[in-house]
């Protein structure tokens, strides 16, 4: 009954005209940017982050969540229609979705993706509402040593489950932690790594870092690649409704995808991308007609699309209840909370129930809005796909610039973002994933704070981390993950899994 | 695009070895770590019980230094042509320079020259980054974007950005 009461509170907040408006605006803008190829969800959120800073916290976060799943949805539209994934989590949707579109079934593919995502969104929102309160209770019993170990585990797991070199990813995390420490040390009042620049004494703003690394870096990377030719398959989408056969084959895939995505989303390093890849592999393995995959199998759209939406939503659970971001998008969310003066963590639910439950309720509303935005308005998004990149990048560049400037009305921030853009480009070229860096950046000050507190509890004895059972368990889990990845057998399996 | 092109320009095997992704990445980490250690040389370290300003930063820099070294060694041990840099990696100067420059100019001009002129500057310089844009197209894009940003940021969000130059 408590659940119903909580949801009632949430819908009370989410259904106010203002918040409905912001959820809709967020979902619309998110879809708009998400549809554009060449802009990933991290860049989208980073770029639009400043827009939400000027709103009241609850509305701002509702809008930001809307932007996030809007971008998610928009990416699949692009994947199906032009065979260009707007984001990594819709890479697998390209495989069968685009084949369906070529066979004249673009409408069916889009509808299956949208309805599957909506179903997954409903289930995962319910999961958040059910599991967040008990998890927050667990979180509240954690002391500083446990938190520190939990963050170590979270960071390591995020790296292991992501693709690419593990050592490089850990180095990127450490780099992020260092960037997070720039500015004034809250404990001693000393300044660190500020180069004597006044603007840096408050630290680097997460919007500046994210817009630079992801937004600007992505523009430079895209411009250095040969201009893509976009084969838009369907000029006009007819027949949106899938056939009975499509439905019969899609719904079990939707169920499997939702279940898989919901579980994988909660894991650190999980979230939308991992869920989508895993779901595609699962569908292909369990299908009676694996030979149809790659040639427009409807399961290959339904499974991954449901999974990536479920994963995207459940990745909110560790962020909202423990304050630990599982992926870069959640790290940006934490950044947004912090800018509104709210520290995400177990206390958020009891201290700001209206905001917490309002956000959860608005996720469900947002998912419903997305079905409406995506299906009947699909023609509008198709038009948008025709805008050439040589115009798009100018618009993105400008909005990145204005966005960074408006965060703190600081011209220095714009220069800093330009610098991070160059850095982001260099990272991409050297195959250093920048996503783990954002995780480290957000957790840097928190880890230092908890390390200090733990040391104060133990009078400076680092053994405290292994003497406390929960902390020890978390550290062992982190170590086990490291060892597992280092094993040659697992390593080749892991590479194989990401190949698929 | 095949790789040999970019690499064959490099004079000797030593430089060719350095031009591998992992080696460069490792050197980058080592460089940042060294810079960090040098910058934090005067920060008070304190003790584990009472950590000073420099304790955690220096600890992290040492870790980064170690990781960077491992990455370099891994890169050097890799077989010759696993994932070499392609010549495309070296021909990115144009977008890199002009995208960055357009932002820097925007940052420097927005407070003094106002939104309209700084957008014109950003678009003008930014358009050079991609060869594909004709002057008239650029102008049209700039006008559309000026109206759009004015509508969103000034009218919609009510931000206090100067629109025109302050005389």
* Alpha plus pi helix count of chain A: 23
**End-to-end span of chain B in angstroms?**
53 Å
Unreliably modeled segments of chain A: none
Strand content of chain B: under 5%
Sequence stretches where pLDDT stays below 50 over 5 or more residues of chain B:
1-8
Class computed from helices, strands and strand pairing of chain B: mainly alpha
* Spatial strand order of the main sheet of chain A: 1-2
Distance between the termini of chain A: 44 Å
Which percent band covers the strand fraction of chain A?
A: under 5%
Characterize the structure shown:
The complex is a heterodimer of chains A (500) and B (167). Chain A is mostly helical and 500 residues long. Chain A is built from 23 helices and two strands. Chain A has one domain (2-499). Chain A has a two-stranded antiparallel ribbon. In chain A, a hairpin with a 6-residue loop joins β1 (183-184) and β2 (191-192). Chain A is globular, with a radius of gyration of 22 Å. Chain B has 167 residues and is mainly alpha-helical. Chain B is built from six helices and no strands. In chain B, α3 packs antiparallel against α4 (55-77) and α5 crosses α6.
In short:
The complex is a heterodimer of chains A (500) and B (167). Chain A has 500 residues and is mostly helical.
What secondary-structure arrangement, pairings included, does this model have?
The complex is a heterodimer of chains A (500) and B (167).
Chain A: H1 2-14, H2 17-35, H3 41-53, H4 57-82, H5 91-102, H6 106-140, H7 144-161, H8 166-181, E1 183-184, E2 191-192, H9 206-224, H10 244-266, H11 272-286, H12 299-314, H13 316-322, H14 328-339, H15 347-351, H16 353-374, H17 378-384, H18 389-408, H19 411-429, H20 435-457, H21 464-467, H22 469-486, H23 488-499
Antiparallel strand pairs in A: 1-2
Chain B: H1 4-8, H2 13-18, H3 21-39, H4 55-77, H5 93-127, H6 135-156
